[in-house]
Design goal:
This protein has about 260 residues and is an alpha+beta fold. About 15% of the residues lie in helices and about 25% in strands. This is Chitin-binding type-2 domain-containing protein.
Length: about 260
């Protein structure tokens, strides 16, 4: 697509006209000046929009797939991406607190900003946090307390949603997720979180001793979890899907292979 630009006649009036001290002031001349200035601004705005549209069309890729929805990395901007929906191409912008890397899908194919490596890509939009109570950015994951906590805040569109960690875990702001409490000893007490104190020694010949230096113990009344001690700190372990805990072997097994109490 080509754009032709015509030079406007040299202005006889206005800020770029040569001074004429002998020309009398007249209301019609003032109106003419205003219309001319407005016309110049309008022409410039139209020309700028046309050139931007041409440049964007040249940089945007075409959709390789005629059906479905596919998202593609923007080569220059970390907060934007190209979206193909049934062959129709659109330029999308991530919400505040989100960026695009093609890996996350927190919202509209975008990922949390702390999880994205932008490399040399810049930002097309202002990345200043749009904060609300409990949310630094409109989208993000944040602690819900200054001390050790088994829950956290997940923010979407600036609204707080409380999320619970898996039993035995606490929120770790360093990884924006849940972690073993013994990894946050400065603020967490693993014994209080798990509800178990690891013995200082394990009698030889016992089933628990077979797993030394990480001895195991059953959780009374719980067929799906066990406790293992790591460096003297308890960790609550959950058996995998479809497995139950066998108190005799201190391992997670198929339900049909464990004592009757934990088969169902």
């Amino acid at each position: 697509m080509f754009y032709s630009c015509h030079l406007l006649p040299e202005p006889r009036h206005g800020p770029f006209a040569p001074p004429n001290n002998n020309q009398p002031a007249h209301p019609s001349l003032s109106l003419s000046k205003g219309l001319e200035a407005a016309g110049m601004k309008l022409f410039g705005a139209i020309l700028s929009l046309a050139l931007v549209a041409h440049a964007s069309a040249a940089a945007a890729p075409s959709c390789p797939e005629p059906y479905g929805e596919q998202a593609y990395l923007h080569p220059d901007h970390c907060d934007q991406f190209f979206l193909c929906t049934n062959g129709t191409l659109t330029l999308e912008t991530c919400e505040n607190g989100l960026l695009f890397d093609g890996k996350g899908a927190v919202h509209n194919h975008c990922n949390y900003n702390w999880a994205v490596e932008c490399g040399n890509r810049k930002f097309a939009t202002d990345q200043t946090p749009l904060s609300t109570p409990g949310c630094e950015y409109l989208f993000g994951v944040y602690p819900d307390a200054a001390e050790c906590s088994t829950s956290y805040h997940k923010c979407a569109f600036g609204e707080v949603h409380q999320e619970l960690c898996e039993p035995g875990l606490v929120y770790d702001h360093r990884i924006h997720g849940c972690n073993w409490p013994d990894q946050l000893l400065d603020s967490c007490n693993p014994e209080a979180v798990v509800g178990f104190k690891c013995p200082q020694s394990v009698p030889s010949g016992t089933v628990a001793a077979r797993f030394w230096p990480y001895p195991r113990y059953p959780v009374p009344g719980d067929c799906h979890r066990l406790i293992t001690c790591v460096d003297g700190h308890p960790r609550l372990i959950t058996c995998g899907e479809g497995k139950v805990f066998n108190e005799e072997s201190l391992t997670c097994e198929n339900p049909e292979d464990v004592p009757h109490a934990c088969r169902h």
